[in-house]
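Ticket #4471: structure output looks truncated?

Reporter: J.K.
Steps to reproduce: submitted the chain below (632 residues) through the standard prediction queue, then opened the result file.
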Amino acid sequence: MSKFQHLFLLCFVCSICINTHLFAQLKSDAKKEILEKIREEFFKEKIRVSQEQIDYWKKYKKAMPVHKELQHEGLQNDGKSITSEYPNVGVSVSNQIESEVHAAINPLDSANIIVSPINQTGNLTVPIYYTKDFGKSWKKSAINLGPAVAESFVAGGGDPMFAFDANGTAYFSWINLYYIAFQFDTVYADMYWAYSTDGGETWLREKNDLIGRGYIVNQQIESFFDKQWMIVDRTNSPYSGNLYCALLHVDGDDPRVGLRTKNTKDSFFTNSTLRPQSGDFVFNQFSGVDIAPDGSVNMIFLGSKEDISADDMAFYHLRSTDGGKTFVSEQKITPIIHPRFSPEIASATTVGILNQRVYPCPTIVIDKSSSPYRGRQYVVWSGYGSTQNNNRGFDVFLTFSDNNGATWSEPKIVNDNTNNLISDQYYPSIAVNDNGVVILTWYDRRNDPDNLMTEYFMTYSFDGAQTFEKNFSVSSQATDFSTVGLQNSGFGIGEYNQTLATKHYAIPVWADARGGSGNLNIYAAFIPLKRNITSVQSYDVSLVSDNISLSVPYPSPSPKGVVSCEYMVKSDCTITLDVLDIEGKIIMSVYHGTEKAGKHSRTFPTKSFTTGTYSCRLVTPYGVINRLFIVE
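Returned output as attached by the reporter:
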């Protein structure tokens, strides 16, 4: 080898070493940037302790008195009646500011549904509501959500998450942020779990009820667990009953997603996190998880191997066939164009959504029905495009795989708005029912040229997402999204909502602030799954409260004659009881005036009614309830 060749080889090797070092340094810098963003978001979004509270704790060595409004669950009525084309059920209409909701339905009893939002009134808490009559009435669960640590002071929390097993046991997880013994240099961030064997009425906590424990010391993250998604294996696989939790686990300078498992025979979660095989990911967040019919665990995440603002941002798929012990190598699903991660459109804004909360909301669900599409894996998200900016605002995208995530279909846009206006459709949720019907819901601004007023939309597919029914709104009133964060420090609706399904109904659950005051409440709609829904439908509206109740009018079906309506008010108040037709128009005023506390019954004639569906509506200072009845 000549001297020139030696010199060339030496220079080549040195350049590799230098470039490798520079690339490693770039990756390290990128990870530091991501960790800093996570830290900033943590303190902005999850900590709800003011300096006044901390100063009080330091001075008096005791907890702040609870504000009066936190000591009861009274309801609030903005004076506007609730009208809708579809069965809207007010899960929670109160003076508590609630959003970012999760929900689940009991596989053994479709009338049993559990819902938990984040309550942003004061410290972040996660109340649980349950129904055992398909949303006709709701009650609040009995559960101690506090940290299982002596001398702890709650500073925040959130991220409620549910999963049912095949036997009807419900699992719940959430995050508590707290200080210990008036020491404020360390914030503890625990991710807990609990379970219920009575449909969400009461909850139990094991001695070891931690999914993971985090520490933020002097505002620097040492360890942190965030945004978990839970699923239970309800198949007949060897791992049936395993409870899996896909989450973000920041461990030192490693801000990556992973999987933690509670084996069916154990009463605790693993204390280690199963990570993606590749350690090359600089950015690695926003996970999702579901179980295939064969019992394999399938997980997705958004990742980049270059930088948080690189053009290689894409969704990836992971699969475990051994009960969450190991992952096979990740497979790329699709690239994504999104303003939060794409420098050329980073200035794009969505009114009502904090910039750090604008994210693609990826979700995976797998068809476990006996339909021809059994085993098909669906992934949905919102973004500006896959490989290029479509210049339409946010769209809802869907792709699917029929070979366990090895290859994926070309992403398609699900929202069917075709006007030339910039219009945002975002935060999708997806479910597949026992017949293989694919149901999608999302927030949608297509009906406002100013891209501000927001409704909650849905569609569904009977042919494995090849075609979809015409999109339609299920919310009874649009929300001005410039107002959604007025009462919760800009948190607004949060990031998550949930769609449930039975064989015959789609049940979207979401938050909005339709009153315009920023008073966020949780709503649920019960939509019959049939083709070509275009006409106005009858609907139910209910509230979660012990303050009022309204029974189903009887008899129903009723021969033309007299119908009775029973209701209860907990305290003396002014009420209005009306009868509405299928178009939502008042056709009879039954009673308006002051009602004493207690149970009451009123009757009204139906001899002049034509055959059809009607509703009885009770309006009180606490809120509104509608109940359907049929006249034959």
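Triage note (M.O.): checked the attachment and the full token line is present. The domain at 548-631 is CATH 2.60.40.3880 (Immunoglobulin-like).
Status: closed, working as intended.
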